Amino acid sequence: TVLHGKKIVFTDPRPMVALSLQREGRGEMVKIPSIYLRTTPLRFEGAGLVAGTTPPSLELQGVFMPDMNTLTPLLVPLIGRNVSLVGTRPAPFLLSLPLTLPLKSSQVMLSTELSADSLRLRGGLGLRQVSLPIDLNRGTLRVRIDGQLDGRQVSVEPSWDLVADRPTISLPAASQIFKDQPLRPSLTGGLLSDMHPLFHALADSQGAIDLRADSFTMDPAETGGSLPSFTVAASLDRIRFKPKGVLREILDLAGLDQEWFRCREKEMVCEGRNGRVECTRIHLVAGDVMVGIDGTILPDGGLRYRVHLPVGEKLAAATQLVVQTKATVAAEIGGTREAPVFDGQAFLSSLSGQLRREIEVREDKEAGSAASPPADTSSADVSPAAEPTPVESRQP
Q1: Using CB atoms within 10 A of its CB, is residue 316 exposed (0-12), middle (13-18) or buried (19+)?
Q2: When you count CB atoms within 10 A of the terminal residue's CB, does the N or C end of the chain come out lower?
Q3: What is the pLDDT of residues 18-66, one digit of tens each?
Q4: By the 8 A CB rule, do 271 and 278 touch?
Q5: Phi and psi at residue 233, to the nearest 5°
Q6: Number of H helices, E strands in the chain
Q7: Cα–Cα distance between 26 and 327 in angstroms, integer?
């Protein structure tokens, strides 16, 4: 029986152990010519010895064959509940530990290389043909995860601090998760949509992306490891977006009928803290049209996003105002990643107030800059109109 705290995580009613022992010299060392263990999640066979040190130490080497599907639940304290492994391939191992209780992780040394047919993360992102070299030494567990994602190689090197009261996963600074990865539904609908709603929820995307983790830490025991803290950078220079759903509705209201957009920025940086994910503002560009997008994904998956729009003739006419400036307004997107929500009527009702506040802020800034040359305000006029009039508008 294996316990995690007071919770039983595994019970095998019929484990099997067979070994032979051979004492050497005056009893200072005991050889183990053969040892065999069979349990439900794994079986191994090998040889080793018990050294006559103080305390005695056990050294084993051989081959073990894990059933990854059965073994994964036992690894929840280390990997959380959002990872699943499948495979039954044999793996060589070398193990050294003192025969003393309580056993400290800093006293255990382990070296092995596991193989898995697949490794799947939350959201459906899965790697195939996975290699997992593992090294445990001085209380630090290091793993290199090499696998295939849609035919491209992905490599990640997480480590665990097992000496701490609660094991913590971290990645080395500036870890390159993948490069030139094609945008497929398994990626845009999972990992990337957890970072930004422009992937999957608000637009279709085409192209390839690089992803780099500048920092990443996670307590896997914390609600299954669902709340990591991270700073990641995603490249945008090889991606184009086709707005859909509520984003398409917003652009249509603004009179922006462009079908495909690219990003002005070469990359965006996203930070995750306590389940909230916030990314730097990005700008979608098509011809002389530029639209800004920023906001936050909440811990429950809720959206608090804004789309910053240039005020063209269609929006200006809706406000009953004459606009002679590069004015912008913001449309709010709520709902969730899976079901974004936009209230078009509320947006149109807010336009006049947004435009007046923008002019007030601009005038306050100009009034506070008395030492600066007078600003040219002739092109920043917003005035009421008795009826809709042609609008002079320069889109950025």
Answers
A1: buried
A2: N
A3: 888 888 766 678 999 999 998 888 898 999 999 888 888 999 999 989 9
A4: yes
A5: -120, 130
A6: 7, 28
A7: 91
